[in-house]
Amino acid sequence: MLSLSFAALALFVAVKADSWGPAYSLGPTSSAIIEASTTFTPGTPPTDAEDSLFLWIGISNSTSGLIQAGVDQLADNNAYCGASSDQWCAMASYFGVVDGATTQLNGDMVPVDGDQAIGIHYKLADDNLTWNQTVTLNGTVISTLQSYDGPLLNGGFGTGTECQSECTGSTSVQTYTDTTIVLQSADADFSSTLSKGTGVVASDMVTTDGGKTWTIASITIPAMV
Length: 225
Fold this sequence. Notes:
The chain is mostly beta strands. About 0% of the residues lie in helices and about 45% in strands. The strands form three sheets. Strands 1, 2, 4, 6, 7, 10, 15 and 17 form an eight-stranded antiparallel beta sheet that branches. A hairpin with a 6-residue loop joins β11 and β12. The longest helix is centred in the middle third of the chain and has 5 residues, at about 75-80. Residues about 1-15 have low confidence and may be disordered. Keywords: Signal.
């Protein structure tokens, strides 16, 4: 998937993209994001696939890469990951500078159905440098990836519906449930940075520890129009 870096509130600054669907966006935090998790159900992919449609949920800041596990649909998903025409390719993914070059890194790519719930977990390791991405399906790990951005100072968190080249956009609803975001230190005002695109519906953000850990029961992203 091709992707972008976070910027304040809008979350993303354009590098090269044709169109974007509605998004749920948070940030920047006055602290740093050190962990995030969610359960993602992508919905039915378009029946007339064209290159390329990417659905992801990501975390980053203005100086780091973008941690962005999710699903892709290309015109030939069978060649891409062995998926059928009515499936997605799910994976852990990262977009950023690696060894001096801007690079897209992907973990293993696995076919998934649109109604399958995909677990996504991002966590900063004890070395305070390494990010571990873990993608699961029915409790089984299907894709992992590491990147090296450290704590995401003043970071943001949000969804992406990214339509590249001849893509016609998503055609069904995406859902994110049981989302948790963990900050390095409490930011009681983090929820005030929320921005929602047209048609996006979400539960209230909840914290029980003064703003260090935030939960969102559900986020619903509509199809692109």
